[in-house]
């Protein structure tokens, strides 16, 4: 038991029982301190002084506006209510909007060259949700049931369709096709994200990949398709064979081997690149990421999907820095460590979030 | 039986994993916190809502003393709650939720505000925070009715404290934490926290007495 009879005003101020009595008295505390005062009237002065001092701090704390509070509560509930993989999607969407705001102010900065070697931890997650039947209201075929393969961030998967077509599905992507895939005049699949197709030839039934508002029509061939929501473009890279690609603008372009088409979904423009090194666009299937003089704002989303993280940068100008790199079977830490070899860059990893500070560019 | 007036925190039908949680008016605040916290750890959504309603505003108030960026503080609180929920099975026990949350938020803000350094360099968290976080004076609220002269001298006195002294004063007098909890939140030993608090009190009182 403390000997309060020896307490000075300063001692009372620092005493937790005393503080609680002044700030939020309970019956017990009141009983104790009233009795103490009655028995030790000589302490009245110190107690008064201490009480006055503590009362100085009685201001109202900064309050969070009710609306803000309700919003915050809602956001937390939203994130808790979605399944684990989707909750990271939410985070990244939120973070990405911040980043985009940033790089619209960005000055264009010079290219820098950073040659990486090799990388990747692969979660060959068998988390593909197979054979989930869902009624999908897609156009007139409202009753059609779809097979759905969903690959979360950090994952990758290879599936074989009924016709023998092989599809490698990249992280954060979804592939759907109907149960009666083989009974129609065409073989239709619906893609969000990125996939590599090695299509079994069947001249009587063309294979059609629907990605955003683009259709890619195929006879028999191997090609990569990439069309993530929010990126405003669809890319198709043809390894061999022949594909034709048509967007909403009714342009149709036929690609030959080693050509790459980029359809800008907002501008509705179709660009074709010749003599591309197709391997750079398809090596993700083997866990190899290749960046060829690409700006960071293209690279970061790929790293985010591959490693299932959200990456923040504090310098808008960094996003325009260009890199050439080949990352083959490296962990996220190793990749970051490579970035970090420049003194100007620091990073912190916190759960699924990566914070990178400093400038990436070598001026 | 008036004294054992039970309050049901949540209804069975909405329970994901646990039975209903009860606490009584006889429970001390720490008993109550333990019960609510344990329900939270077992996945009780009403416990989550309860904790949010009870503490979110206070966390915001604390967080905004470190940075003017309210959005950042809101984001940190959001992430904090989501992560606590996702990791709920691995959380340790506590009988002071407030203290637990203040501590977690402080760390999170520190890491978010200044993520400059590489991980291996952040060995001394305390020193790191000390350099990077500024606990602002103007945010320590002073009673409205206090006369202006006294208020001004208190403010000057607070300004003369170190950041850590200021924060300890805030934690002690506003958050009502004891020295042990202050030590834990601020990453100090208990004896340094006691010294910190008593020096801060001494300095404040000295400054105030000089004026009056």
Describe the structure using short key phrases.
heterodimer, A: alpha+beta, Phage tail protein beta-alpha-beta fold, Jelly Rolls, 9 helices, 29% strand, B: 212 residues, mainly alpha, Rna Polymerase Sigma Factor, Chain: A, 2 domains, two-stranded antiparallel ribbon, disordered N terminus
SSE blueprint:
The complex is a heterodimer of chains A (363) and B (212).
Chain A: H1 9-13, H2 16-23, H3 27-39, H4 44-55, H5 66-81, H6 84-103, E1 134-135, E2 145-151, E3 157-160, E4 166-169, E5 173-178, E6 187-198, E7 207-211, E8 214-218, E9 222-227, E10 233-240, E11 243-246, E12 252-255, E13 260-264, E14 269-273, H7 279-282, E15 288-295, H8 296-307, E16 310-313, E17 322-328, H9 332-340, E18 346-350, E19 353-357
Parallel strand pairs in A: 6-7, 16-19
Antiparallel strand pairs in A: 1-2, 2-5, 3-4, 4-6, 5-6, 6-9, 7-8, 8-11, 9-10, 10-13, 11-12, 13-14, 15-17, 18-19
Chain B: E1 6-8, E2 22-24, H1 29-41, H2 45-63, H3 70-86, H4 97-113, H5 125-132, H6 148-160, H7 163-173, H8 179-186, H9 190-211
Antiparallel strand pairs in B: 1-2
Describe the structure.
The complex is a heterodimer of chains A (363) and B (212). With 363 residues, chain A is of the alpha+beta class. Chain A has three domains: 52 residues, no CATH class; 104 residues, Phage tail protein beta-alpha-beta fold; 149 residues, Sandwich (Jelly Rolls). In chain A, strands 1, 2, 3, 4, 5, 6, 7, 8, 9, 10, 11, 12, 13 and 14 form a 14-stranded mixed beta sheet that branches. Chain A has a three-stranded mixed beta sheet with strand order 16-19-18. With 212 residues, chain B is mainly α. Chain B has two domains: 112 residues, Orthogonal Bundle (Rna Polymerase Sigma Factor, Chain: A); 70 residues, Orthogonal Bundle (Arc Repressor Mutant, subunit A), CATH 1.10.10. Chain B contains nine helices and two strands; from the N terminus they run ββααααααααα. The radius of gyration of chain B is 19 Å and the shape is globular. Classes of the chains: A alpha+beta (363), B mainly alpha (212). The interface between A and B is large, with 45 and 51 residues.
């Amino acid at each position: 038991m403390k000997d309060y009879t020896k307490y000075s005003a300063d001692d009372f101020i620092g005493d937790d029982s005393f503080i609680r009595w002044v700030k939020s008295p309970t019956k017990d505390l009141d009983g104790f301190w009233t009795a103490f005062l009655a028995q030790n009237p000589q302490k009245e002065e110190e107690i008064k002084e201490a009480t006055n001092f503590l009362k100085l701090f009685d201001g109202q704390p900064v309050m969070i506006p009710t609306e803000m509070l309700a919003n915050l509560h809602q956001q937390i509930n939203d994130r808790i209510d979605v399944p684990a993989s989707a909750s990271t999607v939410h985070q990244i969407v939120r973070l990405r909007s911040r980043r985009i705001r940033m790089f619209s102010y960005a000055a264009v900065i010079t290219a820098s060259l950073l040659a990486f070697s090799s990388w990747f931890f692969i979660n060959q997650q068998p988390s593909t949700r197979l054979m989930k039947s869902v009624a999908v209201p897609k156009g007139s075929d409202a009753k059609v049931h779809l097979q759905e393969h969903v690959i979360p961030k950090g994952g990758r998967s290879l599936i074989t369709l009924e016709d023998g077509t092989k599809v490698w599905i990249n992280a954060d992507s979804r592939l759907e096709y109907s149960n009666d895939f083989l009974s129609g005049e065409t073989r239709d699949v619906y893609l969000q994200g990125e996939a590599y197709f090695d299509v079994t030839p069947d001249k009587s039934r063309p294979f059609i990949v629907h990605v955003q508002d683009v259709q890619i029509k195929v006879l028999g061939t191997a090609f990569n398709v990439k069309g993530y929501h929010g990126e405003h473009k669809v890319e198709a890279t043809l390894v061999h064979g022949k594909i034709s690609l048509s967007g909403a603008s009714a342009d149709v372009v036929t690609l030959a081997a080693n050509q790459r088409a980029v359809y800008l979904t907002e501008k509705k423009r179709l660009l074709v690149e010749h003599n591309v090194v197709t391997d750079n666009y398809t090596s993700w299937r083997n866990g190899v990421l290749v960046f060829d003089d690409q700006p960071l704002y293209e690279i970061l989303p790929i790293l985010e999907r591959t490693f299932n993280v959200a990456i923040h940068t504090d310098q808008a100008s960094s996003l325009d820095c260009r890199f050439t790199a080949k990352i083959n079977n490296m962990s996220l830490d190793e990749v970051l460590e490579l970035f970090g070899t420049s003194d100007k860059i620091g990073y912190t990893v916190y759960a699924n979030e990566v914070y990178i500070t400093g400038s990436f560019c070598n001026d | 039986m008036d004294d054992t007036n039970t309050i049901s925190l949540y209804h069975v039908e909405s329970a994901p994993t646990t039975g209903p949680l009860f606490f009584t008016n006889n429970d001390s605040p720490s008993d109550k916190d333990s019960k609510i916290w344990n329900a939270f750890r077992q996945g009780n959504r009403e416990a989550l809502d309860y904790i949010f309603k009870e503490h979110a505003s206070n966390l915001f108030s604390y967080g905004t003393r470190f940075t003017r960026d309210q959005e950042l503080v809101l984001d940190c609180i959001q992430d904090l709650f989501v992560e606590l929920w996702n990791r709920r099975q691995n959380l340790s026990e506590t009988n002071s939720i407030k203290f637990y949350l203040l501590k977690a938020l402080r760390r999170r803000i520190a890491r978010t505000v200044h993520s400059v350094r590489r991980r291996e360099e952040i060995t001394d968290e305390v020193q790191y925070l000390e350099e990077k976080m500024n606990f602002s004076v103007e945010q320590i609220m002073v009673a409205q009715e206090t006369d202006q002269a006294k208020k001004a001298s208190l403010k000057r006195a607070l300004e003369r404290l170190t950041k850590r002294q200021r924060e300890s004063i805030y934690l002690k007098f506003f958050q009502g934490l004891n020295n042990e909890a202050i030590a834990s939140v601020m990453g100090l030993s208990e004896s340094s926290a006691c010294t910190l608090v008593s020096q801060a009190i001494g300095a404040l009182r000295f400054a105030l007495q000089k004026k009056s």
